[in-house]
Specification:
9 strands, globular, single chain, alpha/beta, two-stranded antiparallel sheet
Length: 547
């Protein structure tokens, strides 16, 4: 319900914003944007990998818990514990779709794709309001086909939604900064966006506060608008503080301190100047960032000799200037952060996409109609090529589907994230992992601060699971093959078939055979797999990539 209200407020509030006009002066409905969006993402859902990013698996697990019990908790081995991420995203953007369409993992992607396409639609409309229909279509194409969108946008992750919501906020402020007063309707939209941004990720304040102060300095806000905008931001922050105080015992202790006490219980392990250079090198090794930066630089140089490009640059300058502060804060934050991921910089990529589209539009001298036709042909061709080369579900996804359609009651052992195995195969008697190298199996939760131990650590990567347990943390995953071989052997001998989900690591099969457990490998087509239940002491390996 929360996500539905957010969508409705955003759509209704923007009915009169970001109008796009073609060269003939008529208003253009960007049908091509929706067509390309649907073509690209409809085929992406089938090939998305739910085994890639651990945050995505957690958001799904929490949403599943919300649907079944109404509580935002993580379930591992039958035990429910608080998640490391603030549960607003799971509760508002994932759980409603799982409630409507079922708790299969892929239904959790629908909410992410819905808000992503809505955000791309708005950003493209904003580009079109400056550079016309060509800029709109170029922007939509760049945003949708960007590799980060294609990879992270089809997983239940906050990153792409966070980027489009933040930049929509910047676009509204940029428009308000030069041609109209910030009305109560704008303030409501600002409030919804700012609450969502800060609720999704605390770094949302990097967008909200600079935009807020820009509007105040320009005296565009009325008193009621001021209160609505300011109140929503504090409400989102207060909600997180209250949640932390209630669940973790302190408003300043989060799920990351609970799940990942090292490095989070030591500020200098999380943020440190020594991370800056390696992270900067990593950023400039990202092809998306370097490519967009080069294209944008070339287009800026063309503005000197092309009057229309120069005019578009003048029009988009407020958007670029307003975005400088939030993006600068975001980049610096993550350059000093202990962990690098390209998904943290998606807002930067999206700003460059908007800027490149607006500046490149005047370089296409064909008519809007011809450009639109070419764009539509390209969209259809792109969808066809994607379908042609789409390999379909991964081996793991296929195995999951087969197991979910089976009778249940098997013990599962996996080399994957146990949180995912518990989520996608709830019928299992038990879920085992091979060793502690799997995500979440390597974690031990700290109910109280481990700051004393953290202060003695110089390199967070050197801390092992055993170190955490030795200093008071509690294991979450207890069914680990390498630690409980005899228990596992007893289960196989007593219960019969144990299903291995994933790819057995080197040496695992030999170790199993030494324990007197036989191994069977099945190679049928999907949905023709049958799992025997009568033969004792057997380990079944699902190998669905080979006929």
């Amino acid at each position: 319900m929360v996500s539905v209200l957010i969508f409705l407020v955003i759509i209704l509030s923007l009915q009169t914003s970001f109008r796009v006009r073609s060269s003939e002066g008529s208003r253009v409905m960007p049908t091509a944007v929706w067509l390309l969006a649907l073509c690209v993402f409809a085929v992406s859902i089938n090939s998305s990998s739910l085994t890639s990013v651990s945050d995505a698996i957690e958001y799904l697990n929490v949403a599943h818990s919300v649907v079944l019990s109404g509580e935002p908790l993580v379930s591992i081995e039958g035990v429910q514990i608080p998640p490391r991420n603030f549960p607003l995203f799971s509760f508002a953007f994932v759980a409603p779709f799982q409630y409507l369409f079922g708790t299969q993992p892929l239904t959790g992607v629908f909410g992410c794709i819905a808000i992503l396409i809505l955000g791309i639609f708005l950003l493209s409309r904003f580009a079109g309001a400056i550079g016309g229909e060509k800029a709109l279509l170029l922007c939509a194409m760049a945003l949708l086909l960007l590799s980060e969108t294609r990879y992270f946008g089809v997983q239940p992750l906050v990153d792409c939604s966070f980027a489009v919501l933040g930049l929509t906020l910047v676009g509204i402020a940029a428009q308000a900064s030069h041609h109209r007063e910030f009305s109560l309707q704008d303030a409501i939209l600002f409030g919804v966006l700012s609450f969502s941004l800060v609720g999704l990720r605390l770094t949302g304040v990097f967008f909200v506060l600079p935009v807020f102060f820009v509007l105040i300095s320009l005296r565009r806000m009325k008193s009621r608008a001021f209160l609505v905008a300011l109140g929503s931001t504090f409400l989102a922050g207060a909600a997180q503080l209250a949640y932390s105080a209630s669940v973790f015992g302190s408003p300043f202790r989060t799920g990351y301190n609970y799940w990942v006490p090292i490095p989070y219980d030591n500020f200098w392990l999380v943020f440190n100047p020594k991370y800056f250079v390696p992270n900067l090198v990593e950023l400039f090794s990202q092809s998306s960032f370097v490519g967009l930066l080069l294209v944008f630089s070339v287009l800026l140089s063309l503005a000197r000799n092309n009057e229309q490009v120069r005019e578009n640059l003048r029009k988009i300058r407020p958007f670029l200037l307003v975005s400088l502060v939030p993006l600068g804060c975001l980049v610096l934050f993550h350059l000093f952060y202990f962990y690098f991921s390209s998904r943290f910089f998606i807002p930067v990529y999206y700003v460059l996409c908007v800027g490149c589209a607006v500046l490149a539009a005047p370089l296409f001298t064909i008519s809007d109609l011809e450009f639109r036709k070419g764009f539509l042909y390209l969209a259809v061709l792109g969808a066809a090529v994607t379908l042609l080369f789409d390999k379909g579900p991964s081996e793991f996804d296929q195995a999951v589907r087969v197991l979910q359609s089976s009778g249940g009651g098997y013990t599962v052992i996996t080399d994957k994230n146990p949180l995912l195995a518990s989520l996608v195969y709830p019928k299992a008697r038990a879920v085992w992992v091979v060793d502690r190298s799997q995500e979440y199996a390597s974690k031990a939760v700290a109910e109280i601060s481990m700051a004393a131990f953290a202060s003695t650590v110089s390199d967070w990567k050197s801390v092992t699971f055993e170190d955490l347990v030795a200093h008071g943390a509690k294991p979450v995953v207890k069914n680990v093959f390498v630690e409980r071989r005899e228990d596992f052997r007893e289960i196989v001998q007593r219960e019969g078939t144990v299903v291995f989900l994933g790819t057995p690591p080197a040496g695992f099969l030999a170790s199993v055979r030494e324990m007197g457990i036989s191994v069977s490998r099945y190679r049928p087509e999907l949905f023709l797999l049958t799992i025997p239940t009568s033969k004792k002491g057997e380990l079944s390996l699902l190998d669905l990539n080979k006929a």
